[in-house]
Amino acid sequence: MSQQGTVLTAEQFSGAPIERAHLHRGFKSKKTPLKWIRFFRACVLQRENANIKKKKELKKIWFGAVILIALGFLINYFFYFPFFLFILAVIGVAIILTSKTKSKFRKNYTDGFDFFSDYFSAFFALIEEDLQPQSRISLEANVKNTMQSANLVKQEKHQSNTRGFISGSNYYYEKEISNGSCFLSDGCMLSFNFTERLRNRVVKKRSASGKRKTKQKYKSVYPFVLKMKIPKAKYILKSEVDTSDIQLAEDTDFYIVKTIRKFDIRNEHPEKYQPYASSSIEMFSSDYFALELINLINVSYSCVTPRV
Predict the structure, then answer these.
(1) What Rg do the C-alpha atoms of the chain give, in angstroms?
(2) Which residues cross the membrane (predicted)?
(3) Which of 47, 175, 244, 280 satisfies CB 3.0 to 4.6 Å to 109 for a cystine?
């Protein structure tokens, strides 16, 4: 994740208003689970308030456009002037103002990715009892648009035998959504990495009437990698460990267990899969997400037994 000026540090959080520390800007900080939950909720509430304000502004723009067109009609009834051009000008200005208002909202509050509030709030609430007293969770996030040149990993041609197919390309993007770490009460260190992998397929086709069309389809998956550093002073590695779904290593003081959970809506809930939506992460419920991560922790602990 970029560490440039748009990312706030922990020191800046204390005096920064919510709008400066909003999710879309990215953040890196350490907080207790309760403070993280409050922060996420505050961000979501502010976004909701801004969305209400945006809708009111859009209504004013188009209400004003209707009033101007009605006045133009009355003026044109008594005095001739280019009424048709006047209508086009009013509608054009209204469209430009609408576009600017929506663009400003997207820039300041981002579309989607409010899952941080529900997903991580649920996860942090579940692990809070297992943390050290007043332990803080370090969390870094980046929810900016994935389809940027900086995130482009690979580009390749797409071939198809379907009728009217002209050409196609696949664009593969990868972006780290978040990473974090914390210490559990038994001395274990938990760290995680959450990534978005997105395939954008652009296909050009010709219809039966000869009209050329361009269609875009998306496939997104979200690998969540969890690593547990389990202290040898408190745990013993089991004699037989199934390593088919985990990666196991060790150093002088710790057993290191790495587990992966790849969230993929097309494979797990094909009925919810939307090929024309670039993001699918919000289709997984927060409870489902949190419990899956807790399962990764349990899998890690299943590799060891407590010392007597």
Answers:
(1) 26
(2) 61-77, 83-99
(3) 47
Q: Give the pLDDT score at 106.
A: 78
Closest CA to 175 of 221, 117, 111: 221
Return the axis-axis angle of helices 33-78 and 83-109, rounded to nearest 10°: 180
Q: Which residues of the chain have pLDDT under 70?
A: 1-25, 81, 110-115
Residue identified by tokens 């009892």 is 129
Asked if 152 and 171 count as a contact pair (C-beta separation under 8 A), the reply is: yes
**pLDDT (0 to 100) of residue 22:** 54
Contacts of 247 (CB under 8 A, 6+ apart): 257, 258, 259
First to last CA, the chain: 43
Q: Do residues 278 and 220 lie in contact, with contact meaning Cβ atoms separated by under 8 Å?
A: yes
SS (H, E, C) 148-212: CHHHEEEEEECCCCCCCEEEEEEEEEEEEEEEEEEEECCCCEEEEEEEEEEEEEEEEEECCCCCE
Residue 27's φ and ψ, nearest 5 degrees, are -155, 160
Q: Does residue 227 sit in helix, strand or coil?
A: strand
Q: For residue 228, which phi and psi values (nearest 5 degrees)?
A: -115, 125
Handedness of CA 286, 288, 294, 300 (dihedral sign): negative
Residue in the block written with tokens 């942090």: 124
CA angle, 201 then 202 then 203, to 5°: 115
CB distance 94 to 59 below 8 Å: no
Map residue 108 onto helix, strand or coil: helix
Q: How far is Cα 194 from Cα 1, in angstroms, rounded to an integer? A: 12
Name 265's Cβ contacts closer than 8 Å, sequence gap at least 6.
220, 272, 273, 280, 283, 284
E-only strand ranges, 87-164: 137-141, 152-157
Residues contacting residue 148 through CB under 8 Å, at least 6 positions apart = 173
